[in-house]
Amino acid sequence: MSLRADAPARATHVHRFSRAERWVHRTSAALMGVCVLTAACLYVPELAQLVGRRALVVTVHQWAGLALPVPVLLGLVSRALRADLRLLNRFGPHDRLWLRAALRRDERHAARPAGKFNAGQKIYAAWIAGATLVMLGTGLIMWFTHLTPLVWRTSATFVHDWLALTMGIVLAGHIGMALADPEARRGMRTGEVSREWADREHSLWRH
């Protein structure tokens, strides 16, 4: 009796993210948050005066930035993470349809077909991965000043600063979209989402 009673409850939810994937996301988000906050303390005069101890802030910023790729690299031991990275790296005809609908602001779910990840999520993942690598490279050039000529350091500083601002804006948009979708947040928090949400938002996902 209890097995039959529990079956409908289990059927209403589907597994979306493994524990390893959720750990990678949370750890990466924490490190990124430290980078953003310390960067703000270094570049916003009011915050710099409030926090003080600039040398300590610089050190925390440097080591948080250096550690940023580590969670993903460690997470590669997870088969689920590797499978999802392959999905994020593939664009299909349905992704072009999703993007056209998004540009037209067509909110109909039928106009936005998506697999486990929609086209917007794929573009964001690719952009943030590339931006993180650029930030890491330019940061290392700025950190180890004796290894590169002045023109390299000047260029690296320019790219690092402006890309940091851009990343802050993009991350704010990402957080805003997450706040607007409680079910997506639940998937990242618990690993499960409702079957109704999965069928509606990711109609091509064979969960």
Question: Notable features of this structure?
Answer:
mainly alpha; disordered N terminus
Looking at the structure, what is the overall shape? elongated
Counted beta strands: 2
Helix content: over 70%
- Look at the structure and give the mean pLDDT: 90
Task: Provide the gyration radius in Å.
Answer: 20 Å
Approximate strand percentage: under 5%
Strand-and-helix sequence, N→C? Answer: HEHHHHHHHHHEH
> What summary fits the major beta sheet?
2 strands, antiparallel
Strand order of the largest sheet: 1-2
Instruction: Give me the secondary-structure category.
Output: mainly alpha
Low-pLDDT sequence parts: 1-10
State the end-to-end CA separation: 27 Å
Q: Helical segment tally?
A: 11
Describe the structure.
The protein is mainly alpha-helical and 207 residues long. Helix content is 74%, strand content 3%. The protein contains eleven helices and two strands; from the N terminus they run αβαααααααααβα. It has a two-stranded antiparallel ribbon. Helix 2 packs across helix 3, helix 2 runs antiparallel to helix 4 (54-67) and helix 8 runs antiparallel to helix 9 (150-179). The chain is elongated and about 55 Å long.
Brief sketch in words of this structure:
The protein is an all-alpha fold and about 210 residues long. The protein has eleven helices and two strands. About 15% of the residues are buried.
